[in-house]
Specification:
alpha+beta
């Protein structure tokens, strides 16, 4: 069986002297995998086919903005993630909101949540934003264009538009 996904967490269990890898697959295949519980398996890790150059360049520019604006790069990044609007809305029981937000954020830095009261009593609407690792070409183009525009406003040099377009074209 060949699976594609993302390593979400790696930890070392000192008591048992083993390493645990949490591998996230973006769909429910639980029933297909249950037969493998307890079996020894061989894993081959390969980098995905997507080009990381656009994301790497995004982070270079965010680093430049961090130096110029004296704002933490994580704060700058999540600002753009929220502005670009790639999110899902979940109507969730109030008592489950914090657990959901923690679970969502565990996916990565850009996976952030905002909330607003629901029209249903006892519920909250959660706006669950996705990190750039989950973006398609169009979504990556939007966030990178916004960052480039802000860099230009701050007199931070950027690549030529045709080079940026090439980075986007290589995305996924």
């Amino acid at each position: 069986m060949k699976l594609e996904g993302k390593i979400n967490n790696i930890s070392y269990d000192i008591a048992n002297d083993n390493t645990r890898i949490e591998f996230v697959i973006p769909r429910d295949i639980t029933s297909s995998l249950e037969k493998y519980i307890g079996l020894e398996v061989n894993l081959e890790l390969k980098k995905g086919k997507r080009s990381n150059n656009a994301n790497a360049y995004l982070w270079v520019l965010i680093g430049e903005l961090q130096q110029k604006l004296k704002i933490p790069k994580e704060e700058i990044y999540t600002k753009y993630v929220r502005e670009c609007g790639v999110y899902d809305v979940y109507c969730t029981k109030n008592e489950a909101v914090e657990a959901f937000k923690e679970w969502w954020h565990d996916r990565g830095l850009g996976w952030v949540c905002d909330t607003q009261p629901s029209k249903f009593e006892g519920f909250t609407n959660i706006f669950a934003y996705r990190g750039t690792s989950d973006y398609d070409k169009e979504q990556m183009s939007v966030i990178l264009s916004n960052v480039v525009e802000d860099c230009i406003e701050q007199d931070i040099p950027t690549q030529k538009q045709e080079d940026i377009d090439r980075l986007i074209e290589e995305w996924k």
